[in-house]
Design brief:
6 helices; single chain; alpha/beta
Length: 207
């Protein structure tokens, strides 16, 4: 069976883009391209200079327009991944929606309701369970459900993993991740090194 082509959109709601978000967006673009689907960063300020590594990532589409403007004629085909939505994402949603929308930054701790602005614009919503995910994890889980037909509750997860910083120190990640075959959290390439190098900073400095 052919995998349906879908579009994944992150509405970047911040005037800046930190190293954490850059690595997440690179991962989303790369993984989405591998499925033959599309990844779009929308609402980017024209004055925002993307890092070279992100700008040159295959599969990335940059849009200065808002998602509301891009899809004003097909709003009913856009699904907002929303922690406050009344129902969870299901395999059947693949037949209802062509575009899956994420309000960056999903990975705040504590979580800020960054999707509230998008919710108010009338997009239909689905949730990804009760535990906060990073943006790349949310996109990864959505692809698994929508394109690979894995039910949300059948995906292997690891919650609040501990990352070893050095021999004497570790840090707890306050998010849910997809678990790989070795029992480790799936993270963007370079993310663990970024966390280790900035372990003395708060997460807010990384986004």
């Amino acid at each position: 069976m052919a995998v349906a082509i879908k579009t994944y959109v992150v509405e970047h709601l911040d005037p800046e883009l930190g190293p954490w978000s850059s690595l997440e967006y690179q991962a989303i673009a790369t993984e989405t391209a591998e499925t033959g689907s599309k990844f779009c960063l929308s609402s980017l300020s024209k004055s925002l200079e993307l890092p070279n590594e992100l700008r040159n990532t295959p599969g990335l589409v940059v849009e200065h327009r808002s998602v509301e403007e891009i899809y004003k004629l097909e709003k009913d085909k856009v699904c907002l991944l929303d922690p406050a939505a009344p129902s969870e994402l299901s395999i059947e949603d693949a037949a209802l929606f062509d575009v899956f929308l994420f309000g960056g930054i999903l990975g705040d701790d504590p979580p800020r309701d960054r999707t509230a602005e998008l919710r108010q614009k009338g997009f239909k919503g689905r949730r990804l369970g009760p535990i906060q995910m990073t943006t790349d994890t949310a996109a990864r889980v959505t692809r698994l459900v929508i394109q690979q037909k894995v039910a949300l509750d059948k995906i292997p997860y690891i919650d609040y993993p501990e990352l070893k910083i050095n021999e004497h120190e570790s840090t707890g990640m306050p998010f849910r991740y997809v678990m790989d075959e070795n029992g480790n959290p799936v993270m963007p390439k370079g993310m663990i090194d970024l966390i280790k190098s900035d372990s003395e900073k708060g997460f807010g400095d990384l986004f």
